[in-house]
Amino acid sequence: MDIATKTTRKDFMSDQEVRWCPGCGDYSILAAMQLLLPEIGVERHNIVFISGIGCAARFPYYMNTYGMHSIHGRAPAIATGLAATRPDLDVWVIGGDGDMLSIGANHLLHALRRNINLVIVMFNNQIYGLTKGQYSPTSELGKITKSSPFGSADQPFNPISLAIGAEATFVARTHDMDRSHMQAILKSAHDHQGASFVEIYQNCNVFNDGAFEAITGKENREDNLLYLRDQEPIVFGKDDKYGIALNTQGGFDVIDTTNNGTERVLVHNAKQKDASMAFALSRLGVNDGEPRPMGIFRDIAREEYGSFIETQRQTAIAKYGSGDLDKLFRSQPTWHV
Amino acid sequence: MTVDTGKKVINLDSLVVRFAGDSGDGMQVVGDRFTSESAIFGNDVATFPNYPAEIRAPAGTLAGVSAFQVQIADHDIYTPGDSPMILVAMNPAALKANIADLIPGGTVICNSDAFEKRNLEKAGYSANPLEDGSLDLYKLYCIPITALTLEACKSIGAKPRDAERSKNFFALGMISWLYDRPYQPTLDFIKTRYAKNSQVVEANTLAFNAGRHFGETTEAFESAYNVAPSKLPSGEYVNITGNTALSWGLVAAAQRASMPMFLGSYPITPASDILHELSKHKAFNVTTFQAEDEIAAVGSALGASFGGAIGVTTTSGPGVDLKSETIGLAISLELPLVIVDVQRGGPSTGLPTKAEQSDLLHVMFGRHGEAPVAVIAASTPAHCFEAAIEAVRIALFHRTPVYLLSDGYLANGSEPFRIPNKEDLPDLKIEFATQPNKVLEDGKEVFWPYLRDEETLARPLAIPGTKGLEHRIGGIEKADGSGNISYDPINHENMVKLRQAKINKIADYIPDLDVDDPNNASLLVLGWGSTYGTILTAVNEVRESGHSIARAHLTYLNPFPKNLSQIIDRYEKVLIPEMNTGQLASLIRSSFLKDVIQLNKIQGIPFKVSEIKAALISLLNDK
């Protein structure tokens, strides 16, 4: 094995011109990725980006690694075959909310439950960008778009809830306005064995500008964003003024810690086997006055798919010996003529 | 083998038996056993299982009848036979559904216990056919199979309902005696197949032996029959179905390519047995993945191909519909991929368990854009082995998706397969790129994924993990050479033509089509796929009556063999029998501007030899 020479962001930039709209949130995600990969230390020829269709899906063309820009929704399925046969590779899946939660939702759910060794990064801008502005499966109810002039009648998905419900072993959220958080989350996702799901709030400044401004805008973050930190109290606001506590109905209360102390405040445990608390946290931010959590909701250990089938293969070889065609052809009764 | 009962043994040169009963009666097992006994004895065999899509259709009804036909012979045979000489009918519905196919004077063996009022009504009989003389045309044996089975199993204390399940083995024992088949293989089979339940082993063994002894001692059968071993080319043989042969071919291809194989598949009749078989062979570095749907099945296979494995997906027509977009992507990516389509009756759900050749035009043209693929078709159950190896060869060497067409008839039918020397199988090793292949103007050495081989027009494959050859591929139109996204109009036209030219080039690497024409005939019968055996038998029989007929059978459907055009031109008349409305006929007409005569059957069941013979004779007489 070669000793990895020190690489920089430039090593991960391809020679292709980046063609996203000026001001698109995708630029900051691309930068975060290109800055992160030299830190991770995996050589670029061992990295593969697989994407489907959509603005986000152009991502592989801009990374100087191996890559495939495939078809709408199918990236998790294609990546599954690659990761299952090539455990030596770092396989990343990139897509948007339409790609992964609408046309390809099925594949996303199954890749997560199988715990395929993938990092699945979903750029959520709550709109269809490449097709020029139709509502997406994460657009809010009543959303006025080109295809919903009277408002969308579709209840949106909560991607984090969906991933937890799909038995995902790593589920996290970050946003395009905070590069260092993005990098930290993507690094943790990369370090996790098995399928990691990362939702990134991403601004589409052309078709859905400011969709997350109320949460991720610099002046709003303090009151409306909650950074989940493992094994630490779940608090937010200026000087951690507020905390999240369980109420007697099994729901959450936002409590003022200056008046009530921190005794009732929940401590985040992303490694908790039971998914109930992670799921409950994923619902935060739906009601007024609740902050939207960012960070790692869930990070549990479960054997990843590739290692599971490799064990099966080794067991088969131990039991039957390495495949021998002569034996295969005689695995049913034979006769001589 | 002798039968020491004082009864005489009559030698037959061939025998066609059909076992028929309810879906739950175990007729497929019995048919399969009778075939194996005969194969091990040395006969040539050919089988035709025919069963409903429902796992257990209402008992006793015509809809629930499951049948298994086998021809055994002391000479080469190519079909399971047009008409059975013996029909074993386990109930009135089985009799009713099958009696019309029996040859006049044929033998009917019925389980008389099942011919009671309720079953007769369910089958739509107003009177008992065993008693009303309606079967006088045939040699009828009424045997109380249920009662005899129950009696045989009494000693082990099995509940009547459980013991009755062994009646198929009683019938098998009886027929095995009647046709002088070796018993031991079936006794061994019972022991291993039902090893988990000792009572079932005992009951089936008792029933089978009781059936044999019944045959021996009863006054009913005045003689036993024998079919001598056939004179197949010397070698070691195994009786396999098309699906097994196809699976083994894939495994063998992966071994000969020294590459891992990845099968992405979603269960679908009649292709699922390939998934079942391949899932056993992890020790061959074969990974099977039961995907969430047909799309993920082909997608995962394509992903595996990108990583340097042999990506394979197996399905039937409805699955092909769903996979089409991904196959278009594979065409654009120019990656190896094998898509096995075990055709069944369509459209839509159609006839899931029946055979049809109706996907030819679908796999040829069923994608958006100009998206050519290679297409080959297996012609007999054993040929599925060779066809699978050939599909992998074309996929690997020409960097293209390849459709391998089989059908329900080949998939479940079986015949002896001569075990090859593994060293004689083709060498399928390919080389992946390890070095840059292009020097840019500034002197920089780079890897261009679409810089083609001049001979084959195939592109180089650099698999992820290869240092210095990092590159991106995708479904957007790309510049020839560099592979970078290109919307340039001239480049697009060039790429469309190149993708077609690359498929056309395969014709340089496949054999010419052989024509079997000993007497300079003016009539050519041209077939493809599973009609092989029937056409061959029909042609041989018509030739015996002094006629000249030429015969050719296509394995390569896209591209066609290079000499096909000359062959077509050489004959005054070309007859194309197909189990569709004329799909190869359309391709031949549009490719060669030559009219052809169609013979089509779209009933979900294969042609009979007699049907093809009739068409041939009519054409020969129509001067």
How much of the sequence lies in strands of chain A comes to 15-25%
The overall pLDDT average of chain B reads: 94
First-last Cα distance of chain B: 51 Å
> Residue ranges of chain A: pLDDT <50 for 5 or more in a row?
none
Largest sheet of chain A: 8 strands, mixed
Strand order of the largest sheet of chain B: 11-10-12-13-15-14-22
- CATH superfamily (homologous) name of the largest domain in chain B: Pyruvate-ferredoxin oxidoreductase, PFOR, domain III
- Give the proportion of residues in helices of chain A: 25-40%
Principal-axis shape of chain B: globular
**Which band does the percent of strand residues of chain B land in?**
15-25%
Low-confidence stretches of chain B: none
How would you sum up the global shape of chain A? globular
Distance between the termini of chain A: 53 Å
CATH class of the largest domain in chain B: Alpha Beta
- The total beta strand count of chain A reads 12
Largest sheet of chain B: 7 strands, mixed
Q: Judging by the overall fold, what is the CATH architecture of the largest domain in chain B?
A: 3-Layer(aba) Sandwich
Radius of gyration of chain A in whole Å, from Cα?
A: 22 Å
Do you know the CATH topology of the largest domain in chain B? Pyruvate-ferredoxin Oxidoreductase, domain 3
